[in-house]
Amino acid sequence: MRGFRLGPVSGALRWRPFAVVVVGLGLLALAAAVSVARGDFPIPLGQVFDVLMGGGPRGQRFIVLDLRLPRALTGVFVGAALGIAGAVFQSIARNPLASPDILGVTWGAGAGAVCVITFGGSLGVVGGTMAEVGVPLASLAGGLLAGLLVYGLAWRRGIEGFRLVLVGIGVSAVASNFTHYLLTVGDVTDASRVMVWITGSLNGRGWEHVVPVGLALALLIPAVLVGARLLGALQFDDDTARGLGVRLNGARSVMLLLAVVLAAVATAAAGPVAFVALASPQIALRLAGTATPPLLGSAVVGGLLVVVSDLVARLAFGGFELPVGVVTAVLGAPYLMYLLVRSRREARV
What we know:
- With 349 residues, the chain is mainly alpha-helical.
- The protein contains 14 helices and two strands.
- It has a two-stranded antiparallel sheet.
- Strand 1 (2-6) and strand 2 form a beta hairpin.
- Helix 3 runs antiparallel to helix 11 (248-270), helix 5 packs antiparallel against helix 11 and helix 13 (295-315) packs across helix 14 (324-348).
């Protein structure tokens, strides 16, 4: 750790977490560039950078700027939002199992979006512009509702991490079953669209998906970073945190609300991409060697996981493209089992 001063701003810089962010950003930029370059019409990396600098023929500019770059940026932003949301949840609950996936936030967001897809499809209850704009808005509302429900049910004169996880698992089960019930209400076309959406997919993502999640990150990440000191204090027991001058309930409520909004916005853009919010903070924690999941490191690792998984989903199976959520689920399921086994061993000790 080394102190620094930039004008009136001073602080302490820990080199290992800083290196994780810098190296991670380099890998993330390389993965995004490869994602833009590869596809049915491969484009050399040099020509991709030429297009990004304003050059290149019209055909390559269309492929890069209108088709592939929005998809890659959506993956980066969605992964970053899920990664930092997971870091906040796990820091507050002091539990590596606490993530928007497990606590029902992403399933709540998915249920809200599926309501609009189903009732705006064959049933025609929701139509026109509302049927298109309503999907991300309903997803955001569903995520917020699920987050508030978990928070309210887990509240017993405060929030305790283990109770938060148990209540979240229950809410997640209710939201997922309600989503699958909606599959039986609509017709086959609606059901197929819903299945792709709830799996988590970046297919067909354009600038209309990049802009909302990018703006949300620009507003919410600085707010979360301002609260990083609170997360550092919340890693201790309640008495110690109070001794440090932290108002526990207010700090937890604000940080959880920010994390819920981040997870809901990410889900609104790409659907519930599984296990990114669960695994990214723990990977970043081990790389950075910190006591709690590093916020920026978790965001970078989350973006890298989604972009690389989407690249695998597009290119590893010939002409058949999988939703990115299938790849992250295949990678994340063994990791979840590892966490459960490790938690059980720690409980025995």
